[in-house]
Each structure stands twice: as structure tokens, then as C-alpha cells.
């Protein structure tokens, strides 16, 4: 009699995968609020990663370690005079499916990721928060960047990251794709912060306007010039 139940059970398993409920952006869990739904805890510490559908499998320690390392050592990108040790923050959201808010796939990913980013991170004067959204069904990783990060990173850098992770996503190597994205993003931001700090790019060309002249220096030079003229006229006259 057991063979009679094999087909229905198989169909039931297939239907459960096909009927997986897509996430709505407003309902996607926040790892800092609902860590149990996200699987974002490592060694008793909650980190900025959420994988409620277990797309990454049961062992997410590698990705969590990368998220922790990047956030712990991230560079300051704004208000650095007041808070030099406060760096940008990156979070990772992973889902099996998401709701399609637009006909265009990219537009749906952008809208979803931006909403989740705004829900996760508090609004601040320094908009330096980043969200990595990976959707298994779309085989894509979409970056939702804060305005300050957008100012720093040229689109060419983001295109290069997309190109590097594409083979990993096609091979369903989701953990490796996320880690590579995190590492390359952190490296790119670090390099760009270095560019702004030194005023030169990798070719040695100046990347910022020259500094304004020092008014005190010009004032002293002006006084010296006037004294020289007076002394010269006095010498001619007498």
C-alpha cells in the first residue's frame, strides 16, 4: 500500500516549493528587531544579516563573519571630524521570492531593497547605510546605497562587482557571491575614501580643487610690499 502515497507526497512537496509566499518589503524582518526570524546571531551577537527562507543553508557563519568584519572595520565617509571612528554600515537581506511591484525586474528589486534599507536603518544626517539584497528566484544581488555612498562610488565600480559575482550566482554559489560583494564593496569604499583624503587618484592626478589661499599669508606679503615701496621712495628722496 505504501507506493500509493508516493505520488501525492511528491506532488505536495513540489507544490510547497511552487507556492512559496513572496516577501512584501514592509513585512521583511529586521535582524535587530527579530533576530530569531533572520538567523543573524553568531556567538551571542546579532549582526546585520537576515535569511528567513534559509537560502544560504543552515551554516551562515561564514557570511556573518564577513558582515561583522566589514562593519567593524568600515571607514568613516562623512562627519569624520566629529565622529572619525564611526564608519558606514552594510546589511544583507536574503529571500527566496519577493513581490513584483513593477513590470521591470530591476525596478522591483530597487524598490524592495530601498524600502528594506529605510526600515532597517534610522534616518541620519550622514546617509551612509548600504543594503545588499539577494533574491534566489532572480539570481541577482541588488545594492541599495545611501546618498553619501552614491557620491563616493562611481557606477563603473558597481558594474565591475556585478560582473565578478555573476558566475557565482549562476552556479548557485550564494554564500560566495555575497562574501565577494561585501569584500569588493569595502575595498572600493576604502580606496575612494583614500582618494578624497589625499586629493589624488591612482594616477597621481589631483581629484579636488586646490585649497583657498591663506588670507594671513597674503596680508603679511602685502605689508612687506608696501614697506618696500615706502623704503624705496624714502631712499630716492633722501
Report on this model:
By secondary structure, the chain is an alpha/beta fold. It has one domain: Diaminopimelate Epimerase, Chain A, domain 1 (Roll). Helices cover 50% and strands 11% of the residues. It is elongated, with a radius of gyration of 27 Å.
Strand order of the largest sheet: 3-4-5-6
Portion in strands:
5-15%
- CATH topology category name: Diaminopimelate Epimerase, Chain A, domain 1
| Tally of separate helices | 8
- DSSP summary, beta strand count: 6
In short:
With about 240 residues, the chain is α/β, with parallel strands linked by helices.
Topology:
Blueprint: H1 3-18, H2 35-38, E1 41-42, E2 45-46, E3 49-50, H3 61-72, E4 89-95, H4 105-120, E5 129-135, E6 140-145, H5 147-152, H6 155-170, H7 174-198, H8 215-237
Parallel strand pairs: 3-4, 4-5
Antiparallel strand pairs: 1-2, 5-6
What labels would you give this structure?
disordered N terminus; 238 residues; single chain; four-stranded mixed beta sheet; two-stranded antiparallel sheet; alpha/beta; 50% helix; 8 helices; Diaminopimelate Epimerase, Chain A, domain 1
Amino acid at each position: 500500500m505504501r507506493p500509493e502515497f508516493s505520488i501525492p507526497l511528491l506532488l505536495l512537496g513540489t507544490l510547497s516549493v511552487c507556492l512559496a509566499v513572496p516577501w512584501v518589503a514592509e513585512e521583511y524582518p529586521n535582524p535587530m528587531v527579530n533576530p530569531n526570524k533572520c538567523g543573524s546571531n553568531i556567538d551571542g551577537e546579532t549582526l546585520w544579516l537576515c535569511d528567513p527562507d534559509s537560502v544560504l543553508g543552515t551554516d551562515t557563519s561564514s557570511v556573518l563573519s564577513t558582515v561583522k568584519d566589514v562593519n567593524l572595520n568600515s571607514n568613516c565617509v562623512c562627519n569624520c571630524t566629529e565622529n572619525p571612528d564611526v564608519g558606514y554600515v552594510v546589511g544583507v537581506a536574503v529571500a527566496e521570492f519577493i513581490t513584483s511591484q513593477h513590470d521591470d525586474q530591476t525596478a522591483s528589486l530597487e524598490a524592495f531593497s530601498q524600502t528594506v534599507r529605510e526600515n532597517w536603518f534610522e534616518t541620519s544626517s550622514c546617509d551612509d547605510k548600504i543594503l545588499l539584497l539577494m533574491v534566489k528566484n532572480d539570481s541577482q544581488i541588488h545594492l541599495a546605497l545611501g546618498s553619501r555612498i552614491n557620491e563616493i562610488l562611481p557606477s563603473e565600480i558597481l558594474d565591475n562587482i556585478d560582473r565578478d559575482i555573476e558566475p557565482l550566482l549562476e552556479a548557485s554559489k550564494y554564500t560566495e557571491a555575497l562574501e565577494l560583494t561585501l569584500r569588493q564593496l569595502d575595498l572600493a569604499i576604502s580606496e575612494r575614501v583614500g582618494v578624497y583624503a589625499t586629493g589624488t587618484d591612482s594616477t597621481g592626478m589631483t581629484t579636488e580643487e586646490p585649497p583657498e589661499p591663506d588670507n594671513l599669508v597674503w596680508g603679511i606679503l602685502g605689508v612687506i610690499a608696501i614697506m618696500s615701496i615706502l623704503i624705496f621712495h624714502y631712499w630716492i628722496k633722501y
